[in-house]
# Entry
Amino acid sequence: MQYRTMNDYLSGVFPGRVIKIAVNAGLGCPNRDGTLGHDGCIYCNNLSFNPAYAANDLSGSITAQLEKGVRFNSRKGECYGYLAYFQSYTNTYGPTDRLIEFYEEALRFPGVKGLVIATRPDCIKPDLADWFEQRFGRKAPAGHPHLLVEIGIESTLDRTLQLINRHHTYQCAVDSINNLNERGIDTGAHIILGLPGETEQDWMTHAERVSALPIKTLKLHQLQVVKGTTLARMYEQEPFKLFTAQEYAQVVRDFINAARKDLYYDRFVSETPQSMLIAPSWGIKPQIFNQMLQKRP
# Structure
Protein backbone atom coordinates (compact mmCIF):
# COMPACT_ATOMS: atom_id res chain seq x y z
CA MET A 1 0.00 0.00 0.00
CA GLN A 2 1.02 3.60 -0.50
CA TYR A 3 1.23 6.35 2.12
CA ARG A 4 3.15 9.56 2.70
CA THR A 5 6.18 9.40 4.98
CA MET A 6 7.96 11.80 7.29
CA ASN A 7 10.71 12.10 4.68
CA ASP A 8 8.07 13.29 2.21
CA TYR A 9 7.00 15.95 4.71
CA LEU A 10 10.57 17.10 5.36
CA SER A 11 11.42 17.21 1.66
CA GLY A 12 8.60 19.71 1.23
CA VAL A 13 10.10 21.94 3.92
CA PHE A 14 13.87 21.68 3.37
CA PRO A 15 16.01 21.59 0.21
CA GLY A 16 17.98 18.58 1.44
CA ARG A 17 17.94 15.70 3.91
CA VAL A 18 17.63 16.61 7.59
CA ILE A 19 18.17 14.34 10.60
CA LYS A 20 16.31 14.53 13.90
CA ILE A 21 18.61 14.64 16.93
CA ALA A 22 16.84 13.82 20.20
CA VAL A 23 17.70 15.97 23.21
CA ASN A 24 16.60 15.76 26.82
CA ALA A 25 16.01 19.15 28.46
CA GLY A 26 15.36 17.57 31.86
CA LEU A 27 11.82 18.88 31.94
CA GLY A 28 9.09 17.38 34.06
CA CYS A 29 5.48 16.40 33.59
CA PRO A 30 2.38 17.66 35.42
CA ASN A 31 1.19 14.08 35.55
CA ARG A 32 4.22 13.14 37.67
CA ASP A 33 5.06 16.17 39.82
CA GLY A 34 1.72 16.32 41.59
CA THR A 35 0.15 19.10 39.54
CA LEU A 36 -2.21 16.58 37.94
CA GLY A 37 -0.96 13.32 39.41
CA HIS A 38 2.09 11.41 40.62
CA ASP A 39 2.04 8.14 38.72
CA GLY A 40 2.13 9.37 35.11
CA CYS A 41 0.36 7.70 32.21
CA ILE A 42 -0.03 3.99 32.86
CA TYR A 43 2.23 2.97 29.93
CA CYS A 44 4.98 5.57 30.36
CA ASN A 45 8.63 4.96 31.15
CA ASN A 46 10.60 7.66 29.34
CA LEU A 47 13.85 5.71 29.56
CA SER A 48 12.37 3.25 27.07
CA PHE A 49 12.58 5.72 24.19
CA ASN A 50 15.30 8.17 25.19
CA PRO A 51 18.65 7.70 23.39
CA ALA A 52 21.53 6.85 25.71
CA TYR A 53 23.49 9.97 24.80
CA ALA A 54 20.52 12.09 25.96
CA ALA A 55 19.35 9.97 28.89
CA ASN A 56 22.84 9.79 30.39
CA ASP A 57 23.71 13.47 29.93
CA LEU A 58 23.53 15.16 33.31
CA SER A 59 25.12 18.42 32.26
CA GLY A 60 21.83 20.06 31.31
CA SER A 61 23.52 21.19 28.13
CA ILE A 62 21.48 20.96 24.96
CA THR A 63 24.65 21.82 23.03
CA ALA A 64 26.56 18.85 24.49
CA GLN A 65 23.73 16.48 23.61
CA LEU A 66 23.53 17.82 20.06
CA GLU A 67 27.28 17.33 19.66
CA LYS A 68 26.92 13.71 20.79
CA GLY A 69 23.86 13.22 18.62
CA VAL A 70 25.58 14.53 15.51
CA ARG A 71 28.52 12.19 16.10
CA PHE A 72 26.12 9.30 16.73
CA ASN A 73 24.30 9.98 13.46
CA SER A 74 27.39 10.73 11.38
CA ARG A 75 27.30 7.20 9.92
CA LYS A 76 24.15 8.20 8.05
CA GLY A 77 26.22 10.36 5.73
CA GLU A 78 26.04 13.97 4.66
CA CYS A 79 22.89 15.96 5.27
CA TYR A 80 21.51 19.46 4.82
CA GLY A 81 21.02 19.96 8.54
CA TYR A 82 19.40 18.83 11.77
CA LEU A 83 16.18 19.16 13.73
CA ALA A 84 16.59 19.29 17.50
CA TYR A 85 13.96 16.89 18.80
CA PHE A 86 12.78 17.71 22.33
CA GLN A 87 11.36 14.27 23.05
CA SER A 88 11.39 13.22 26.71
CA TYR A 89 8.53 14.11 29.02
CA THR A 90 6.58 17.34 28.44
CA ASN A 91 8.70 19.81 26.50
CA THR A 92 6.51 22.89 26.91
CA TYR A 93 6.17 22.43 30.68
CA GLY A 94 7.98 24.96 32.82
CA PRO A 95 8.69 28.68 33.01
CA THR A 96 8.39 30.15 29.53
CA ASP A 97 11.69 32.06 29.67
CA ARG A 98 13.54 28.87 30.65
CA LEU A 99 11.90 26.91 27.84
CA ILE A 100 12.85 29.58 25.31
CA GLU A 101 16.47 29.43 26.52
CA PHE A 102 16.53 25.69 25.75
CA TYR A 103 14.98 26.18 22.33
CA GLU A 104 17.31 29.05 21.40
CA GLU A 105 20.36 27.11 22.58
CA ALA A 106 19.38 24.34 20.18
CA LEU A 107 18.78 26.79 17.33
CA ARG A 108 22.27 28.29 17.81
CA PHE A 109 23.92 24.91 17.24
CA PRO A 110 25.62 24.72 13.81
CA GLY A 111 23.40 23.05 11.24
CA VAL A 112 20.19 23.06 13.28
CA LYS A 113 17.40 24.18 10.96
CA GLY A 114 14.48 23.88 13.34
CA LEU A 115 12.85 22.11 16.24
CA VAL A 116 10.46 19.25 16.89
CA ILE A 117 8.80 19.63 20.29
CA ALA A 118 6.82 16.78 21.83
CA THR A 119 4.31 17.77 24.48
CA ARG A 120 0.89 17.31 26.04
CA PRO A 121 -2.08 19.27 24.67
CA ASP A 122 -2.74 20.90 28.05
CA CYS A 123 0.76 22.31 28.53
CA ILE A 124 1.17 25.12 26.00
CA LYS A 125 0.66 28.39 27.84
CA PRO A 126 -0.61 31.43 25.91
CA ASP A 127 2.68 33.35 26.24
CA LEU A 128 4.63 30.40 24.84
CA ALA A 129 2.13 30.02 21.99
CA ASP A 130 2.61 33.74 21.29
CA TRP A 131 6.37 33.22 21.12
CA PHE A 132 5.95 30.25 18.77
CA GLU A 133 3.85 32.44 16.48
CA GLN A 134 6.41 35.26 16.45
CA ARG A 135 9.49 33.01 16.13
CA PHE A 136 8.19 30.31 13.77
CA GLY A 137 4.62 31.08 12.72
CA ARG A 138 2.59 33.61 10.82
CA LYS A 139 4.24 36.59 12.57
CA ALA A 140 7.81 35.32 12.08
CA PRO A 141 10.22 37.03 9.67
CA ALA A 142 11.12 35.41 6.35
CA GLY A 143 13.68 32.65 6.59
CA HIS A 144 12.68 31.66 10.13
CA PRO A 145 13.58 28.22 11.51
CA HIS A 146 11.01 25.46 11.21
CA LEU A 147 8.89 24.16 14.08
CA LEU A 148 6.79 21.02 14.35
CA VAL A 149 4.88 20.58 17.61
CA GLU A 150 4.02 16.94 18.28
CA ILE A 151 0.90 16.62 20.43
CA GLY A 152 0.30 13.45 22.41
CA ILE A 153 -3.36 12.65 21.81
CA GLU A 154 -2.99 8.88 22.48
CA SER A 155 -6.73 8.22 22.13
CA THR A 156 -9.73 10.19 20.89
CA LEU A 157 -11.97 8.50 23.47
CA ASP A 158 -12.35 10.20 26.85
CA ARG A 159 -13.08 6.91 28.60
CA THR A 160 -9.70 5.59 27.43
CA LEU A 161 -7.91 8.81 28.36
CA GLN A 162 -9.32 8.44 31.86
CA LEU A 163 -8.27 4.78 32.03
CA ILE A 164 -4.69 5.52 31.01
CA ASN A 165 -4.48 8.43 33.49
CA ARG A 166 -3.90 11.25 31.00
CA HIS A 167 -5.80 13.92 32.96
CA HIS A 168 -7.00 15.70 29.82
CA THR A 169 -9.88 15.24 27.40
CA TYR A 170 -9.82 14.74 23.65
CA GLN A 171 -11.36 18.19 23.23
CA CYS A 172 -8.28 19.62 24.93
CA ALA A 173 -6.14 18.14 22.13
CA VAL A 174 -8.53 19.50 19.49
CA ASP A 175 -8.35 22.99 20.96
CA SER A 176 -4.56 22.93 21.29
CA ILE A 177 -3.97 21.77 17.70
CA ASN A 178 -6.46 24.27 16.29
CA ASN A 179 -4.84 27.10 18.24
CA LEU A 180 -1.36 26.26 16.94
CA ASN A 181 -2.64 25.91 13.40
CA GLU A 182 -4.24 29.36 13.55
CA ARG A 183 -0.84 30.72 14.56
CA GLY A 184 0.83 29.16 11.53
CA ILE A 185 2.58 26.34 13.41
CA ASP A 186 2.83 22.85 11.91
CA THR A 187 1.52 20.17 14.23
CA GLY A 188 1.82 16.43 14.45
CA ALA A 189 -0.11 13.97 16.57
CA HIS A 190 0.62 10.74 18.39
CA ILE A 191 -1.86 7.88 18.77
CA ILE A 192 -1.40 4.52 20.54
CA LEU A 193 -3.28 1.61 19.00
CA GLY A 194 -4.34 -1.34 21.13
CA LEU A 195 -5.03 0.42 24.42
CA PRO A 196 -7.06 -1.70 26.88
CA GLY A 197 -10.78 -1.77 26.18
CA GLU A 198 -10.57 -0.32 22.65
CA THR A 199 -11.95 -2.15 19.63
CA GLU A 200 -11.38 -2.17 15.90
CA GLN A 201 -14.23 0.30 15.51
CA ASP A 202 -12.59 2.58 18.07
CA TRP A 203 -9.34 2.56 16.06
CA MET A 204 -11.26 3.57 12.93
CA THR A 205 -12.93 6.32 14.96
CA HIS A 206 -9.44 7.57 15.85
CA ALA A 207 -8.58 7.66 12.12
CA GLU A 208 -11.67 9.68 11.30
CA ARG A 209 -11.30 12.11 14.18
CA VAL A 210 -7.60 12.90 13.71
CA SER A 211 -8.26 13.31 9.98
CA ALA A 212 -10.58 16.19 10.84
CA LEU A 213 -7.74 18.01 12.64
CA PRO A 214 -5.32 20.36 10.83
CA ILE A 215 -2.31 18.14 11.58
CA LYS A 216 0.49 17.52 9.11
CA THR A 217 2.16 14.43 10.58
CA LEU A 218 0.96 11.42 12.52
CA LYS A 219 2.87 8.95 14.63
CA LEU A 220 1.20 5.61 15.39
CA HIS A 221 2.54 3.17 17.96
CA GLN A 222 1.51 -0.31 19.02
CA LEU A 223 0.79 -0.70 22.72
CA GLN A 224 3.81 -2.09 24.55
CA VAL A 225 4.06 -3.21 28.16
CA VAL A 226 7.21 -1.70 29.64
CA LYS A 227 8.82 -2.53 32.95
CA GLY A 228 8.30 -0.09 35.78
CA THR A 229 4.88 1.10 34.64
CA THR A 230 1.37 0.81 36.00
CA LEU A 231 0.45 -1.02 32.80
CA ALA A 232 3.08 -3.65 33.59
CA ARG A 233 1.49 -4.31 36.97
CA MET A 234 -1.94 -4.56 35.33
CA TYR A 235 -0.61 -7.00 32.73
CA GLU A 236 1.07 -9.20 35.31
CA GLN A 237 -2.11 -9.38 37.39
CA GLU A 238 -4.42 -10.04 34.43
CA PRO A 239 -2.79 -10.30 30.97
CA PHE A 240 -4.72 -8.60 28.16
CA LYS A 241 -4.64 -8.92 24.40
CA LEU A 242 -1.64 -7.42 22.58
CA PHE A 243 -1.07 -7.32 18.82
CA THR A 244 1.07 -9.73 16.91
CA ALA A 245 3.11 -8.00 14.21
CA GLN A 246 0.79 -9.33 11.50
CA GLU A 247 -2.34 -8.24 13.37
CA TYR A 248 -0.91 -4.78 13.91
CA ALA A 249 0.06 -4.45 10.25
CA GLN A 250 -3.57 -5.14 9.32
CA VAL A 251 -4.84 -2.56 11.83
CA VAL A 252 -2.41 0.07 10.51
CA ARG A 253 -3.46 -0.71 6.94
CA ASP A 254 -7.12 -0.23 7.85
CA PHE A 255 -6.29 2.95 9.76
CA ILE A 256 -4.45 4.47 6.78
CA ASN A 257 -7.30 3.56 4.44
CA ALA A 258 -9.80 5.25 6.76
CA ALA A 259 -7.68 8.36 7.37
CA ARG A 260 -7.10 11.52 5.38
CA LYS A 261 -4.86 10.79 2.40
CA ASP A 262 -2.54 13.77 2.78
CA LEU A 263 -1.27 12.82 6.25
CA TYR A 264 2.45 12.18 6.62
CA TYR A 265 3.23 9.15 8.79
CA ASP A 266 6.26 9.65 11.01
CA ARG A 267 6.44 6.06 12.21
CA PHE A 268 4.29 3.05 13.05
CA VAL A 269 6.37 1.02 15.51
CA SER A 270 7.69 1.84 18.95
CA GLU A 271 11.09 0.35 19.77
CA THR A 272 11.66 -0.44 23.43
CA PRO A 273 14.99 -1.93 24.57
CA GLN A 274 14.58 -5.65 25.19
CA SER A 275 15.85 -5.18 28.74
CA MET A 276 12.81 -3.00 29.49
CA LEU A 277 10.16 -4.73 27.35
CA ILE A 278 7.68 -7.21 28.82
CA ALA A 279 5.45 -7.71 25.76
CA PRO A 280 4.90 -8.01 22.84
CA SER A 281 8.35 -9.02 21.64
CA TRP A 282 8.25 -9.11 17.84
CA GLY A 283 11.97 -9.21 17.15
CA ILE A 284 11.67 -7.02 14.04
CA LYS A 285 12.97 -3.56 13.21
CA PRO A 286 10.65 -0.75 12.06
CA GLN A 287 12.02 -1.05 8.52
CA ILE A 288 10.89 -4.69 8.39
CA PHE A 289 7.45 -3.74 9.67
CA ASN A 290 7.22 -1.02 7.02
CA GLN A 291 8.01 -3.63 4.36
CA MET A 292 5.26 -5.87 5.76
CA LEU A 293 2.85 -2.96 5.57
CA GLN A 294 3.80 -1.94 2.04
CA LYS A 295 3.13 -5.46 0.78
CA ARG A 296 -0.48 -5.25 1.88
CA PRO A 297 -3.03 -4.19 -0.75
About this structure: The first helix runs from residue 6 to 11. Residues 4-294 form a domain with the pyruvate-formate lyase- activating enzyme fold (CATH 3.80.30.30). The mean pLDDT is 93.
